[in-house]
Amino acid sequence: MSEHVYELAIIGAGPAGIATAVESYLQGVRDIVLLEKDENHNSTIRKYYKENKRVDVEWKGQKVELDGNIYFIDGTKETTLDFFDEILQNHSVELQTHVEVSGIEKKENYFEVYMAGKSIKATHVVVTIGRMGKPNKPSYKIPPAIRKKVNYTTDECGSGEKILVVGGGDSAVEYAVDLSTNNDVAICYRRETFRRANPTNQKNIANAIAHKEVRPILGVNIDGLEVSEDDKIKVLFNEIEPEVYDRVIYAIGGTTPSAFLASSGIEEKDGKPVHDENYETNVQGLFVAGDITQESGGSIALGLNHGFAIAQHIKKS
Question: What is the reported pTM?
Answer without folding.
Answer: 0.66
